[in-house]
Amino acid sequence: MAFLKMNKFILLSTLLLFCLPSWSQNPSENYNRFKQLKEELPTPNSYRTAAGAPGHKYYQQQADYNIELELIESEDKIEGKETITYHNNSPHDLEYLWVQLDQNVRAQDADSKLSRPTSVNPNYPKQSLRYVVRQANYDFDGGFNIMRVEDVAGNPMDYTINKTMMLINLPSPLKSGAQISFNIDWWYNINDRMAIGGRSGYEYFEKDDNKLYTIAQFFPRMAVYDDVNGWQNKQFLGGGEFALPFGNYDVKITVPADHILAATGDLVNEKDIFCSDILNRLKQARQSYDKPVIIVTQEEAIENEAKKTNKTKTWHYKADNVRDFAFATSRKFIWDGMAVKQNDGSTVMAMSLYPKEGNPLWEEYSTKAVAHTLKMYSKYTFDYPYPVAYSIHAAAIGMEYPMICFNFGRPNEDGTYSDRTKYNMLGVIIHEIGHNYFPMIVNSDERQWGWMDEGINTFVEYLTEREFDPNFQHWYGPAANLMPYMKSDKAYMTPIMSEADNIRSFQLGNNAYGKPATALNILREYIMGPELFDYSFATYSNRWKFKHPTPADFFRSMEDASGMDLDWFWRAWFYSTDHVDIAIEDVQKVDVELTDSDNIPNKHYYQMKFENIGGIPMPLMLELTYEDGSKETMKVPAEAWKLTDNYTQVFILDKALVGVEFDPKKVTTDIDPSNNKWPSSTSTSSQFDNYKNKK
Predict the structure, then answer these.
(1) CATH number, residue 638
(2) Is 440 exposed, middle or buried (0-12, 13-18, 19+ CB in 10 A)?
(3) Which residue, 13, 99, 542, 656, is the most exposed by fewest CB within 10 angstroms?
(4) What pLDDT shows up at residue 692?
């Protein structure tokens, strides 16, 4: 909101002798809520500048993959072999390489099985034990079986497996600017997601004896080496997600011949895979910008799932400049798609694959939601740089990968569904498609900073949902949705700036998704204003697309592009567990007889006192109600709290005042609105009583 013109009111300086500010902290203590973040943020350098941009020496590694694998449906098993070409673009010589083996989170000796406490609730023993069994995976071994690690000449390489990480010792250091290629063969058992959980796995449909596979983390992947951490070799415990370098992928996937498959990248042999009917429909979809075209119909999918073949087909995909690869495959899939025009004139495809159990909900909404998401995220960041975005339906999952994501949201067996089911499905589709931008392109380290992808993405998701449907039932974003968390016991809270595995699981949604999304929405709508925020946010996004940003890069970019000191905001919302609770303590009319010789305007003077009870400083957005019934909004900047938690100000107004309210639109997550008004329900203000008597 804009500031009122000076002829509306004048703020008197609080440095006047009769209203000196009071300190909320001991001045001898080197602490202030507006203290700069220099001690918390890393020192700027030639790799990352003080402005939040990549420096002139910024570098990042590249890992290219040539993969061949087969999904053996009869055994629920994946066998694969890969050639990794690793490019050392760093200024350092590397003595060894680190490879991530994320499937080892399901190995029998995985740390994840015992690192998270379990217990039995005596009131719900069966439910508790069911969770314990699910956590333990006691009778399932889903870890990688590494069969071969060799250089391209066939010489064995020295390697050591440490849980979910593998160290490859090099015979000689990999020089700066050099590259190395090596081969890994592996296999593993695919987990039943519905029985033991997981981001990757299969869902079994008993009625037609078929499975739907959503497969990810299925191959040994290079860890990130960068200027911040060196090797990012934190163990995967199942919570904190992934840190990965960009690279080019050439992947051949062999599956049963009657499967329909979707994956990261371009399908380069579609003429060998599809019949003429599907090819013609696919061509129509690529020319349809207003609505989806059905490529594989429900009738065809039902017919397909009733038959099974022992034959196989190999799908060949290529993807450039992506940080990961995933795929989904089943003979149950219905398939539809439509074209989306980008701002730069290019066209990308929005597509959905889903079993009949997803209809009619998925056919009606999924691909439309994908297309809308691409348009909205491009509006706030940059044009979508990839050729396709897939939404895949599977029960009880929401998970993202480059160009493809797996999403829940299933109607009842008779096809009916509630608004809650519909909006939950739409929300997860928008969220997971949005992850293409954060972190698949703006490639933050999920293993450490979950909020940088989840929270930032949830914020843009909220903007996207509002545009999709004004009546959208949001999970996160609106201030009111975060209120229960902000009121909750701080003993169980951690600051947003906590590593993903250090957050209690039952608070992860609020901490990594809800709080940062709401904070950014407040920053946009209430503090910076949409225009300035959007410019700064787009600056950050474009600076760091296809790169590896840190929290400091985000904070500094937002300040650099906006010309605003926001350290107080980051400190309060991201580094503390404080909350918003600002009270109007008192409003008093200053009655003083004035003469012309006093040289003081004959106006209405009101001394107002405010208290910051919750700890988070916020601008004071005040709605003033005057004696004549008119209203006016004014904004006191957050810097009013620089020296005090008890802020006093004398306002000069043109009219007699009868009411004041802080945060009238309830956008700040103030947890106690009862102290946001003057007069309050218990007020004894003589001015207000006189006003009521007049009326």
Answers:
(1) 2.60.40
(2) buried
(3) 13
(4) 38
3-class secondary structure for 448-497? Answer: CCHHHHHHHHHHHHHHHHHHHCCCCCCCCCCHHHHHHHHHCCHHHCCCCC
Point out which residues pair with 582 in neighbouring strands.
612
The verdict on 549 and 537 lying in the same domain is yes
Paired with 492 in beta bridges are none
114, pLDDT greater than 80: no
Q: Are residues 87 and 181 in the same domain?
A: yes
544 in the same domain as 464: yes
- Tell me: pLDDT of 120 over 90: no
CA dihedral 364, 370, 375, 380 (to 10 degrees): 130
Last residue of a domain, one of 524, 549, 574: 574
DSSP 8-state class, residue 687: H
Q: Are 248 and 548 in contact (CB under 8 A)?
A: no
Of 178, 177, 155, 157, the C-alpha closest to 169 is 157
Residue in 351, 354, 88 with CA at minimum distance from that of residue 214: 354
**By three-state DSSP, how is residue 641 classified?**
helix
pTM score, two decimals? 0.93
Which residue is associated with the tokens 């593993």? 188
- Give the type of residue at 291: K
pLDDT of residue 139: 78
Output the pLDDT for position 3.
29
Determine the average pLDDT of the residues in 102-129: 81
CATH of the domain at 473: 1.10.390.10
Confidence band, pLDDT 50/70/90 cuts, at residue 682: low
What is the C-alpha to C-alpha distance for residues 493 and 484, in angstroms, rounded to an integer? Answer: 12
Short-list 137, 132, 261, 110, CA closest to 192? 137
Task: Return the H-helix or E-strand segment holding 289.
Answer: none
Distance in angstroms (rounded) separating the CA atoms of residues 223 and 232 = 6
Distance, C-alpha 145 to centroid of its chain: 32
Final residue belonging to a domain, choices 553, 574, 595: 574
Do 597 and 563 fall within a single domain?
no
In tens, the pLDDT along 221-269 reads 999 999 999 999 899 988 889 999 999 999 999 999 999 999 999 999 9
Mean pLDDT of 30-40: 88
Helix (H) or strand (E) holding 657: strand 657-662
Distance CA 456, CA 434 (A): 10
Q: pLDDT per residue over 125-158, tens digit each?
A: 777 777 777 666 667 899 999 999 999 999 999 9
Burial annotation 43-61 (CB, 10 A radius, 16+ → b, else e):
ebeebbbeebbbeeebbbb
Q: Do 286 and 423 reside in the same domain of the chain?
A: yes
Q: Is 631 left (phi over 0), alpha (psi -120 to 50) or beta?
A: beta
Contact in structure between 632 and 624 (CB atoms under 8 Å)? yes
At 447, list the tokens.
């293993």
Please state, in angstroms and rounded to a whole number, the distance separating the CA atoms of residues 369 and 392.
12
Report if residue 483 sits inside a domain. yes
> 170 and 125, same structural domain?
yes
Residue 595, pLDDT above cutoff 90 = no
Query: Domain tally for the chain?
Result: 4
H helices of 327-391, in order, are 361-380
Q: List 296's β-bridge partners, or say none.
A: 335
570 neighbors 33 (Cβ within 8 angstroms)? no
CA–CA distance, 124 with 20 (Å, rounded to integer): 59
- Nearest to 617, CA basis, from 565, 578, 675, 667: 578
Instruction: Say if residue 125 is exposed, middle or buried (CB neighbours under 10 Å; 0-12, 13-18, 19+).
Output: exposed
Q: 3-state class of 226 per DSSP?
A: strand
Give residue 681's pLDDT: 62
Task: Please indicate whether residue 199 or residue 17 has the higher confidence score (pLDDT).
Answer: 199
